[in-house]
Amino acid sequence: MADIYVQVCYARPDMQFARDLRLPQGATLQAAVEQSGVLQAVPDIDLASCRVGIHGKLKSLDTVLRERDRVEIYRPLTADPKESRRKRAVKKGL
What phi, psi does 71 have (nearest 5°)? Predict the structure, then answer.
């Protein structure tokens, strides 16, 4: 069975993590995150509550990866998007 190459990414305002990995074909998103070392580098990541995705699209941890996928771990939102839009509209006088 051939290997696939993927990248695991996580970012905060004060740091960025990106690691290229070679995994066996059929590997899951969760396996990539665990083997990347990001959970050891950033211990405050909780996979049970963090959302994850591939190339900006939300996916589940059991998603099977394909060649050149970019696995992304998302941080929780700090502001409600609807409330932010309302504030901008009020500021513009709409």
Answer: -85, 130
Q: What is the pLDDT of residues 19-70, one digit of tens each?
A: 999 999 999 999 999 999 999 999 999 988 899 999 999 999 999 999 999 9
Neighbours of 50 (CB within 10 A): 15
The number of folded domains in the chain is 1
The pLDDT score that the predictor gives to residue 83 is: 82
Strands 51-54 and 57-59: antiparallel
Is the distance from CB of 50 to CB of 74 less than 8 angstroms? yes
Q: In this structure, what CATH number is given to the domain that contains residue 30?
A: 3.10.20.30
Q: Look at residues 57, 53, 64, 59 and name the one whose alpha carbon lies nearest to residue 8.
A: 53
Q: What is the DSSP letter of 11?
A: E
Residues 23/15, Cβ–Cβ less than 8 Å = no
